[in-house]
Amino acid sequence: xxxxxxxxxxxxxxxxxxxxxxxxxxxxxxxxxxxxxxxxxxxxxxxxxxxxxxxxxxxxxxxxxxxxxxxxxxxxxxxxxxxxxxxxxxxxxxxxxxxxxxxxxxxxxxxxxxxxxxxxxxxxxxxxxxxxxxxxxxxxxxxxxxxxxxxxxxxxxxxxxxxxxxxxxxxxxxxxxxxxxxxxxxxxxxxxxxxxxxxxxxxxxxxxxxxxxxxxxxxxxxxxxxxxxxxxxxxxxxxxxxxxxxxxxxxxxxxxxxxxxxxxxxxxxxxxxxxxxxxxxxxxxxxxxxxxxxxxxxxxxxxxxxxxxxxxxxxxxxxxxxxxxxxxxxxxxxxxxxxxxxxxxxxxxxxxxxxxxxxxxxxxxxxxxxxxxxxxxxxxxx
Length: 382
Prior knowledge:
Elements: H1 2-27, H2 42-51, E1 60-65, E2 68-71, H3 72-85, E3 89-94, E4 100-103, E5 107-109, E6 112-113, H4 114-120, E7 127-130, H5 139-150, E8 154-157, H6 161-167, E9 175-176, H7 183-189, E10 194-195, E11 201-204, E12 207-210, H8 216-228, H9 230-240, H10 258-269, E13 275-280, H11 287-297, E14 303-309, E15 315-316, E16 322-324, E17 327-328, H12 346-361, H13 363-372
Parallel strand pairs: 1-3, 1-7, 2-4, 3-6, 7-8, 8-12, 9-10, 13-14, 14-17
Antiparallel strand pairs: 4-5, 5-16, 11-12, 15-16
Helix pairs in contact: 3-8, 3-11, 8-9, 10-13, 11-12, 12-13
């Protein structure tokens, strides 16, 4: 009797799981349609810049991370863009000594620990950039961010770094945004936050927040404009391949859709086809291009990127950051070797990576990655 009951129970579960899953998938919205949003008014743009003005002529910008699991592009993209602009002193920090392991890929040597930074700069930073981290409530991070805010720093929550900033209480009663994937949980846990839709950058009383990962590019340019003026921001934007950086955003286009779910399920189930793709780590590499390309290829659920070099020593990037290779090798199998990061702009590097993902795994996977990056790859509809 018992074995028959167990057998029938197993059969019932095997039948019900795909049925329930199918019903759940059917309830999800279909593919998103990107709509071109109205331009940001000059008044709103000027107010954003005014709210981001630094306290020093040459400001000090600190990018904070925990040593285990800080988001790759959130940590590296602001650093690369702001260092390129040369309008501020930019330092990468970690809560403890040793390298910072980034997710989903890369490992870097930060400039200092937060303790060393505090000793060198007792008056604090002008801006503190907070990336997404594996823990939203790390007590050391939260205490340090609050202390920097008390000393007058503008706190900038990049992507799901908005969850970390929310945990400090600094967003209570303020207007803000975050990555679309975490939005409901974020609002449920912090009901005093006033969520703003259709803006990828929101600034309110000493705290700035952004939408998903790719928004750190326009956020960095907005900081450059606030610090050094429009002409300098335009020059840097041209170098990195971004034609515009205003705060407009189509929030409705980024959500958990049926194609997104199906691609995640399909690619996860194809575990036997998972690939490790090699990316040569060369001295002088552009940090922004490296972050975007490695991040994108590591979000397909079919592959992960692995940087390699001839030895295990840290490689110095374009702007002086030290990145450790994940593998020691003089080469990589040709069929699993990613194109070298050449002279193209970072924005072009991302577009080329998404095109390569589409060629290798199909359009659905490329769109899946772009959705995670909250990057409006599709042509916006009027």
